[in-house]
Amino acid sequence: MLIRRQLCATAAATALLTLAGCALPPRQLQADAAAPAAAGHWSGRLALQVEDAQNQSFSAGFELLGTPQRGELLLFTPLGSTLARLLWAPGQASLQQGEDRKTSDSLPTLVQELTGSDLPIAALFDWLRGRATAAAGWQVDLSRMEQGRLSARRHDPQPPAALRIVLDTP
């Protein structure tokens, strides 16, 4: 009985240490010295649900640096591994997922191709700053921004979509 307890304890400790070894500390995007002072930096968790025929749902940890015109978005698993890296600048946008790379001539076009939903990129940056900028078809709720939470829903045009963001507290 004692040997069995010791084996269970050893197995549990090994599993815990293995998981702890897999967890990565949050990454820190480095602001480009040439980046405008208006560039923002946010991190937290996001969830997007698109109510189309596939009923798509996506959630991840994120770190975002930039503006609607130029920036970088990193998406993470719960253990901190990088899922994807999205980069954009005027006239170009790219998504890197492991060895796969997808490019487009703009961030809104690439997001539309990836999610099947038209996300209001410029308004999203304002929403993250606590400004309720209007976006066609979208209703944003910033009533919980003091707690680092925002949500937005699109009912028209179809398909309906819901975006939820929980920001890390400083």
From TrEMBL:
Entries under Gene3D superfamilies matching the protein: Lipoprotein localisation LolA/LolB/LppX
CDD domains: LolB
PROSITE patterns named in the record: PROKAR_LIPOPROTEIN, TAT
Keyword Membrane included in the entry's annotation: yes
Subcellular location as annotated: Cell outer membrane
Membrane topology: Lipid-anchor
Major site of localization recorded for this protein: membrane
Pfam families: LolB
InterPro entries (UniProt xref): LolA/LolB/LppX, OM_lipoprot_LolB, TAT_signal
Gene Ontology, cellular component aspect: cell outer membrane
SUPFAM superfamilies, alphabetized: Prokaryotic lipoproteins and lipoprotein localization factors
Biological processes per GO annotation: protein transport
Signal peptide: 1-20
Subunit-level organization: Monomer.
Similarity comment: Belongs to the LolB family.
Name of the protein this chain belongs to: Outer-membrane lipoprotein LolB
Originating organism: Delftia tsuruhatensis
Lineage: Bacteria, Pseudomonadati, Pseudomonadota, Betaproteobacteria, Burkholderiales
